[in-house]
Amino acid sequence: MKLAVVGTGYVGLVTGTCFAETGNQVTCVDIDARKVEKMRSGIIPIYEPGLEELFLRNTNEGRLQFTTSLAEGIEGAEVIFLALPTPPGEDGSADLKYILGVAKDLGPLLKQYAVIIDKSTVPVGTAEKVRAAIAENATVDFDVISNPEFLREGVAVEDFMKPDRVVIGTSSEKAKAVMNRLYAPLVRQGNPIIFMDERSAEMTKYAANAFLAVKITFMNEIANLCEKVGANVDDIRRGIGTDSRIGKRFLFAGIGYGGSCFPKDVQALHKTSQDYDYDFSILQSVMSVNEDQKTKLIPHVLDYFGGDVKGKTIAIWGLAFKPYTDDIREAPALYNIRELIAQGAHIKAYDPEAMENVANLADIGSKITFTKDAYSALVDADALMIMTEWPQFRTPEFEKMESRLKNKVIFDGRNVYELEDMQEKGYTYYSIGREKVN
Ligand SMILES: NC(=O)c1ccc[n+]([C@@H]2O[C@H](COP(=O)([O-])OP(=O)(O)OC[C@H]3O[C@@H](n4cnc5c(N)ncnc54)[C@H](O)[C@@H]3O)[C@@H](O)[C@H]2O)c1
Ligand SMILES: O=c1ccn([C@@H]2O[C@H](COP(=O)(O)OP(=O)(O)O[C@H]3O[C@H](CO)[C@@H](O)[C@H](O)[C@H]3O)[C@@H](O)[C@H]2O)c(=O)[nH]1
Predict the structure, then answer these.
(1) Does some domain include residue 436?
(2) How confident is the model over 161-195, as pLDDT tens digits?
(3) Which residues surround ligand 2 with Cβ inside 6 Å?
(4) 28 is catalytic
(5) Is residue 29 scored above 90 in pLDDT?
(6) Entry's PANTHER family (predicted)?
């Protein structure tokens, strides 16, 4: 099939690359000319495990192409994915200006029937708005359908190629047939395509993300209570996760959820509920608990240093919002770094993938010393904070750490070490939802 993907951020690039891999002819359209130039010369603009290999194979074999021209990109396309940003507007609702802007431009460019797919995360009612914007100037028949994306950064290729499910919102039989053909190679392992009406599909995406944010936040609150009553949140996780009704995943307490999706999608769903006069109060709690959770370790850091970090050097391990990505959107590390810098601390930071993105931040980029490896960040540091659970931080050479750190103290926002180990090694160790060691 011939496909167009408009927007080559995370979702667009993974969608385009994976559908090229399953044998389709894909043209990706982006307004960012520099990015398009880069991709044309074989450079992948994001770090995502496993994607580069597919990207290079499919560009080299001519199935994956790039352009800045919408007209050129959609020429002859049977399917047009809209994978455009939907950032929070001032009132918290998803801003649809990118999607509706492209929809308006699409109308006069359509030359034959096409299925236009909302791949972005968009509020209930968006497909109707997209349809109306295209219809203003369209001269041919078309369908607009909702097909939300559930991939996680860091495991995006696996999630896309072997989805738990594919959700399609449409009542058009013609569009359903096209979707069945397109997704056949991905769902044949037995994971279903779930067809529903478009409003339900739009809502399913927000329900999934909000539910996972609730699950994490619930565990963060249990963790906070564990610290008060003297219980261990990791034991609680094991104790409840083995109940198949609860499930083992997304129960890890820490310094809050971040990323480009949970924060904005919880906010947008809350705004939708307000628009429909519904008080979705659990979402309000989730947002406010998560805000507090992100800087939860700061009071411990201050206590440890007698109330003042002025002039102290804090080593930070991990900047990305989670491992296996260079994405720093809403990363808890940034909230901690901003706070520590404001209080007069100096930051030495290491992350395997995300340092360049942090260095480019206007407010803090130039105030941080970035190091070539994890151990170099510890040289002359007064303490270590762990913000992202990259695997290499789990099994460091502790002797190397000791010879560099000024004090044997670790503030761990991701519970990467066992308490007994820390006890034995003589570290003062603060983590989340577990007792302080030494
Ligand atoms: N990032 C994820 O893991 C993820 C997962 C599932 C769903 N989503 C949703 O998918 C959507 C896209 O997210 P993302 O993270 O890929 O976005 P992104 O911000 O990384 O990328 C969006 C891309 O669209 C391009 N763009 C903007 N305006 C354009 C236009 N008029 N024409 C062509 N290109 C244009 C930008 O240059 C950019 O390359 C959002 O709604 C998001 O909520 C994201
Ligand atoms: O037990 C857990 C699991 C995750 N997190 C945090 O939650 C955030 C989000 O993690 P994850 O869901 O793995 O990453 P995303 O790539 O943001 O993926 C989410 O957001 C995407 C965009 O909508 C969806 O497509 C995915 O299904 C959904 O998992 C990160 O800060 C994690 O550190 C925890 O604190 N504890």
Answers:
(1) no
(2) 999 999 999 999 999 999 999 999 998 766 899 99
(3) 121, 149-153, 209, 212, 216, 250-252, 254, 257-259, 261-262, 321-322
(4) no
(5) yes
(6) UDP-GLUCOSE 6-DEHYDROGENASE TUAD (PTHR43750)
ipTM of the modeled complex: 0.98
CA distance linking residue 192 with residue 24, whole number of Å: 21
Which of 13, 216, 328, 353 is the best mutation target for the ligand 2 pocket, counting ligand atoms within 8 Å of the beta carbon and taking the most?
Answer: 216
Domain boundaries, position 161: 2-196
Residue 119 annotated as binding?
Answer: no
Is 149 close to ligand 1, i.e. is its CB under 6 Å away?
yes
Tell me the best of 322, 328, 330, 386 to mutate to test the pocket of ligand 2, counting ligand atoms within 8 Å of each CB and taking the most. 322
Confidence (pLDDT) at 57: 97
Query: Does residue 264 register a pLDDT over 90?
Result: yes
The residue out of 293, 323, 345 marking a domain boundary is 293
Q: What pLDDT score does 61 carry? A: 97
Domain match, 235 and 348 both: no
DSSP, collapsed to helix, strand or coil, labels residue 183 as helix
Measure the CA–CA gap between 91 and 109, rounded to whole angstroms.
33
What is the reported pLDDT for 189? 63
Instruction: Please report whether residue 223 resides in a domain.
Output: yes
CATH number at residue 403: 3.40.50.720
Going by alpha carbons, the residue nearest to atom 18 of ligand 1 is: 9
Provide the domain count of the chain: 3
DSSP 51-107: HHHHHHHHHHTTSEEEES-HHHHHTT-SEEEE-----B-TTSSBP-HHHHHHHHHHH
Please indicate, yes or no, if residue 46 is contained in any of the structural domains: yes
Whether residue 338 contacts residue 347, with contact meaning beta carbons closer than 8 Å, is answered with no
Q: Tell me whether residue 283 is in a domain.
A: yes
